[in-house]
Design a protein that fits this description.
Helices cover 38% and strands 17% of the residues. The chain is of the alpha/beta class. The strands form 5 sheets. A 9-stranded mixed sheet has the order 1-12-7-2-3-4-13-17-16, with helices on both faces. It has a two-stranded antiparallel sheet with strand order 5-6. Strands 8-11 form a two-stranded antiparallel sheet.
């Protein structure tokens, strides 16, 4: 029996260890290294202790098939068929980037659309705000329409004549500049602005408030009518408002007034502040309590409050005449225009908005200029005018023969100037001292003198078509 056992089992070297001698749960009967070595030796890779000698282990067959057999080609799906339909590593990053890029583009487009909507909304709100600031005086248009037959006929097509009126009301916010007289108004400053048809020049003509003029019968605020009278010019505004002032100007000059603007004190202050002040030079210090102005001598920048006092002061600056004050107003307005153009305010929306906001808040206009679009078209037409072609002058005048404290027009100088403006012909303006140096005699508008009793020879007529004045290109520190 022992021999049979030996023959059937073979020699000890050829037989494998019996299965019952292997540990069943891996916790005893041999080390883990022996188990792993046995698994590697029979090629099964199994670690559960089953016998792989019969060659029927399916995992072993699959492993050997994967190593030695070539997979059959499948349909071209762009994926690795052996990896269960998963994209290759070469394709996977590209697909992920494309998805992320598409996602990013969608969000960017959405954000851009949102910003455009916000910007459009803000732009529309700003436009409506500025547009709503402007006050329209429809009563002026109705009053002028009633007197249409007596108004001048326009001569030059496309040229525009705009009457600018500085209101001297002492009510409301302007109360600090004088006694509140119940809201009555005076035309403290009146300027006829002529814009050439080709928009290559602009001429601003100041009309003295003390000038004696023919004032027509005008309707008052309480619907009464005044009598025609020869009186001080600025009384027309006090009696019949803007319409009466326009009719007085048209009767005096023969020039058709196309539009008008009434600007109050606070609007002027805010405009100066909006351009960050205007620089001037003073030969002597100023201390004027009435004008709320105290300034040292020398070069300095004026803010809105100081600028208003500077253009209104009369008693404490120079000889105290209204003529000198008008010259000062003209030069300052020229400096304001120059700063707006030189600093690019008109072309920079962020800087233009504060100026427009200040201007529109202070404006009362006719229906033809009562919208932001109308004002923009006006400003756009002027922004290309060279500063040396933005000219300022005062109507040729001299002391009134019946009252030296009033003025009267110098003829034929005044009529010649008005004719040039009516026909849209160039007007030559030079400083008063330069006019004298050319041998033209005294300045035709009395601008070289104070035009008051201490200067009886002022303002003699001259046939030369040249007038004393200034331009926006002039430096206030070189006056």
């Amino acid at each position: 029996m022992d021999a049979d056992v030996t023959d059937s089992a073979g020699t000890p070297a050829d037989q494998e260890p019996p299965a019952e001698n292997k540990p069943q749960d891996g916790s005893r009967g041999g080390s883990q290294e022996d188990s792993q070595g046995a698994a590697a030796q029979d090629g099964t890779g199994k670690a559960d202790g089953t016998d792989g000698t019969d060659g029927t282990d399916k995992a072993g067959e699959a492993s050997r098939g994967a190593e030695g057999a070539e997979p059959e080609p499948g349909p071209d799906t762009g994926t690795d068929t052996d990896s269960g339909g998963v994209q290759t590593w070469a394709d996977r990053p590209k697909d992920g980037i494309a998805k992320r890029r598409s996602h990013w583009l969608r969000w960017t487009a959405l954000a851009a659309s949102f910003l455009v909507l916000i910007a459009a909304g803000v732009g529309w709100w700003l436009y409506k705000k500025l547009d709503g600031n402007i006050r329209t005086d429809t009563s002026v248009a109705a009053e002028l329409k009633a007197y249409e037959k007596e108004r001048p006929t326009p001569v030059a097509q496309d040229a525009q004549n705009i009457l600018l009126i500085g209101s001297d009301s002492r009510s409301g916010d302007n109360r600090e500049y004088g006694r509140d007289d119940g809201g009555s108004q005076r035309s403290d400053t009146t300027i006829l602005l002529h814009l050439a048809a080709d928009r290559k020049s602009a001429t601003a003509v100041s009309v003295p408030r003390d000038l004696m003029a023919d004032i027509p019968s005008c309707r008052t605020a309480d619907k009464k009518h005044t009598r025609e009278q020869f009186a001080q010019f600025n009384s027309a505004f006090e009696l019949g408002g803007t319409a009466c002032t326009i009719r007085t100007i048209e009767r005096m000059t023969g020039i058709r007034v196309d539009h008008h603007m009434v600007v109050d004190f606070n609007g002027f202050k805010d405009m100066v502040d909006a351009v960050n002040g205007v620089e001037i030079c003073l030969k002597e210090p100023i201390n004027d309590a009435d004008a709320h102005l105290k300034l040292p001598a020398g070069r300095q920048k004026l803010d809105g409050e100081e600028a208003l006092g500077y253009v209104r002061a009369r008693k404490s600056i120079g000889n105290g005449s209204d003529t000198e004050r008008m010259d000062r107003q003209q030069r300052f307005l020229g400096a304001l225009v120059n700063k707006m153009q030189s600093n690019g305010v008109l072309l920079n929306p962020t800087r233009l908005y504060p100026v427009l906001d200040a201007a529109t808040k202070s404006l009362t206009t006719d229906p033809g200029l009562d919208s932001l679009k109308d004002l923009y078209d006006l400003v756009r037409g002027m922004r290309n005018v060279p500063t040396d072609k933005v000219q300022f002058l005062t109507v040729p005048r001299q002391p009134y023969s019946q009252n030296v404290n009033r003025d009267e027009l110098i003829e034929p100088d005044a009529s010649r100037l008005f004719k040039q403006l009516r026909e849209d012909r160039p007007v030559t303006v030079v400083p008063a001292d330069e006019l004298k140096d050319k041998g033209a005699g005294k300045a035709t508008d009395g601008g070289a003198s104070d035009g008051k009793p201490d200067d009886p020879d002022s303002g003699s007529p001259t046939p030369e078509p040249t007038y004393s004045g200034s331009s926006a290109a002039d430096d206030l520190c070189k006056q």
